[in-house]
Structure formats: structure tokens, C-alpha cells
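ok posting inputs for the magnesium ion job
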Amino acid sequence: MVIIKQGAEAKLSLGEFCGKKCLIKERFVKHYRHPDLDTHLTKERMRAESKTAARCEAAGVNAPRILHMDLNERKIYMEYFEKSITAKAYINDIVAQLNEPAEQKQRINKLAGEIGTCIGKMHANNLIHGDLTTSNILLDPLATDDGTFRDYKLIMIDFGLSSFNQSSEVKGVDLYVLERALLSTHSDITYLFNTILDAYKEANTANVIEIINKFEEVRARGRKRTMVG
Ligand SMILES: Nc1ncnc2c1ncn2[C@@H]1O[C@H](COP(=O)(O)OP(=O)(O)OP(=O)(O)O)[C@@H](O)[C@H]1O
Ligand SMILES: [Mg+2]
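and the output
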């Protein structure tokens, strides 16, 4: 068995479903939790993962196709994007490989705009990701003829903490989680979040002022908490 990644929550390995290569995400048993609670939480996260992936597709947001789910074995079988890299790796590669700051900024802004559009579309359809980070966004190359990464399709993944919710506050929290993640993962790229937010506002016009107000409220509360300790 080829293990692709072993994270805090799950083990990802290559498998087969109906003769086709797929990815198997198996959630670990967390022994520090009561067994009943652990089973309950795991099932809830698996259901959320498969539901939201399907709803994203319906909303025009790319997500892995869920091929099969085995709740007892804690496994989800999904479409595997073999050549994809995470948005995190892509951004880090740009910074490491491109010497020209203007070119770096142009490429990163293009991606940031696409990320904002994608999250905007999700929120416009009341789909809350729950764990927005650049590790949970994949770039699947469209043209790989010369090995360069010129164009790609954006794919959202990792919906274990996702939900279906109309609330502007919940959407604001989703954005706040992303801002925090970007501040720790891409702290040097200060314009990243604002570019995402600009594209987000265009893609999700319903209640956008309220959502941004809620986001700012949540951020202010977060700051206060950090100061108080
Ligand atoms: N469908 C997929 N196709 C290709 N790669 C994938 C796919 N799903 C996940 N990955 C890769 O595996 C990594 C972990 O997947 P995922 O985020 O779903 O699991 P996780 O346990 O929540 O991990 P983490 O704790 O890092 O968020 C992703 O960051 C990505 O690199
Ligand atoms: Mg993840």
C-alpha cells in the first residue's frame, strides 16, 4: 500500500475502486476520546466530507468525487488528483524560484483571486468549509506538456469540518480561519488575504457587507483575546 500522507486526522493512501486508481482517506481512532464519542465524531466528519464534496460540485466548485464510503472502516474512497500540488506548495515554489518580485506578485495574485472566487461561490451556496488553509486547496495542472505549471484547475479538499449554513457570522468565521492560517503559513505575503477578499466580494454579493462586518467583529474579538492571553 502506498501511503501518500499521514496527517493528524487521517492516513491517505493509494487504492483502487472499480478498477480505477483512487485515494483512500482513513481516519484514525483517537484513543484519548471516549470510544463512543470518537466513533460519533468520525462518522459525522466523514458524512460532512462526502456531502460537501458533492454539494461543491453541484455549485460549480471543483472537489474530489466521492466514490465510496465505509463508515465502519472509517474510509472514504475519492478521486485522486495525481499531478496536483497544494496551493501552499505552489506559493512557496513561486517565492523560491522566481527572482522578479513583480512576477511573483502577479502569479500569487492570480491564484489569490481564484481562491477568493471559489470561496465566494461556496458561501453563496451556504457551503462552509470549516478549515480553509492553503493545504486544503489543490492545483491540478491542465497542461503539463513541458512540465511547467502554467494553468491549473483549483480543487477544494478536506471537508471534514464543513457544514451547510446560511449564517453571515459562520461565513465570517470561515474567512477568519483562513486569515489566521495565511498569517502563519505565508506571513511574508502580506497582500494575499486582501486579494482573496476582493475576489470573494465579487463572487458572493448576497449579504456580503454583513459577512465582512461579522468577519471584522470576529477578528476584533480574536485580537482582544490574544492581548488578554
Ligand atoms: N483527492 C486528492 N488528490 C490528491 N491529493 C490529495 C487529495 N486529497 C488530499 N490530498 C493530499 O493529502 C493532504 C492531506 O489531505 P486532507 O487535507 O484531506 O487530510 P488531513 O488529515 O485533514 O490533513 P491535514 O491535517 O494536513 O489537513 C492534502 O494536503 C493533499 O496534499
Ligand atoms: Mg487538510
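notes: The chain has two domains: 3-78, 85-228. The first strand starts at residue 3 and ends at 6.
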